[in-house]
Design goal:
The protein is α+β, with helices and mostly antiparallel strands. The chain has helices at about 5-20, 40-45, 135-140, 160-165, 170-175, 190-200, 215-235; strands at about 20-30, 50-55, 60-65, 70-75, 80-85, 105-110, 115-120, 130-135, 275-280, 285.
């Protein structure tokens, strides 16, 4: 499933083609993805201008001049593709062309200067979805209400993390994977890959009890979270299965994993440890038993 760095990579790839653009020729190739498309979805997008494109957790938010917010979640295999001509993919040596049988949504985006792009959305497993919400509905909806702090913002710091962890009878893996809908809040958008990598950078075990988190450890963990996410965004995310950026390019951060999916391999710290795998809440955790305590 695309995690925060992958969604942010998509946002940055779409923004130059969509911010300030007028939408036209909107076509739906099926009635639904994970959920049915919103009522009159194509009609409501037709002629709208995209004022700005933001990301909240793992959601893309297209703010329209019609006072609608077009929300997209990529699910497990959702993918936007920007097309400006038949030579699009020729510019990218590592590009991968999507399978046209999984094309479910199309529109044209015309910038003020006249440049026209075709925006396609593909989703082989159709676990992604699209919504149209009004601004006053957004953070009252079940998808956004109670979402935690953005990990790349100043909202996340050691004091905030310690407050989240205080009195929590869960391990750090569970604490970080929670998206913030709990009463004590949480961190929005963190997924399995980057939680594993952040915990390794902070030298903390996924089994470390949240309520026992010390301030020094919280400082290291916040730094680990921010650093790994920033490096992943700079690398275009991680392409493990289906993910590709809006240009068609693959991400490269998977080549920099320190623990994720490296079971049995030596720890990069050369401390004599071999990466182990265990399951937490149905998800694989990868960690070094020597340096992560």
């Amino acid at each position: 499933m695309p995690e925060l760095p992958e969604v942010e990579t998509v946002r940055r790839g779409l923004a130059p083609h969509l911010q300030g653009a007028k939408l036209s020729a909107v076509r739906l190739h099926r009635p639904n993805l994970r959920y049915p498309f919103p009522d009159r979805f194509a009609e409501r997008l037709e002629g709208a201008e995209v004022l700005r494109l933001e990301r909240r957790a793992k959601y893309l938010l297209f703010y329209l001049d019609t006072q609608d917010i077009w929300v997209t979640h990529l699910g497990m295999t959702g993918r936007f593709q920007v097309n400006n001509g038949p030579e699009d993919l020729a510019h990218y040596y590592h590009s991968v062309a999507p399978d046209k049988k999984h094309l479910h949504f199309q529109c044209l985006a015309t910038l003020p200067g006249g440049e026209v792009s075709r925006i396609d959305y593909y989703d082989p497993r159709r676990f992604g979805f699209m919504l149209l919400l009004k601004p006053d509905e957004l953070y009252e909806s079940k998808w956004f209400k109670g979402l935690g702090v953005e990990p790349l913002s100043d909202e996340l710091n050691a004091a905030v993390l310690l407050k989240m962890a205080a009195g929590r009878n869960v391990n750090l893996k569970a604490l970080l994977m929670a998206q913030g809908h709990e009463k004590r809040g949480g961190i929005a958008g963190l997924g399995n890959i980057y939680v594993c990598e952040a915990l390794w950078r902070a030298r903390l075990s996924p089994d470390h009890k949240a309520s026992a988190l010390a301030r020094k450890e919280a400082v290291a963990l916040v730094e680990g979270i921010k650093t790994v996410l920033e490096e992943a965004v700079a690398s275009g995310g991680s392409s493990i299965s289906d993910f590709a950026a809006a240009s068609g390019e693959l991400g490269y951060f998977q080549h920099r994993f320190c623990v994720y999916d490296r079971k049995g391999q030596p720890c990069p710290r050369q401390d004599g440890g071999l990466i182990e795998r265990k399951v937490h809440q149905g998800r694989s955790s990868f960690y070094c038993p020597v340096c992560q305590k």
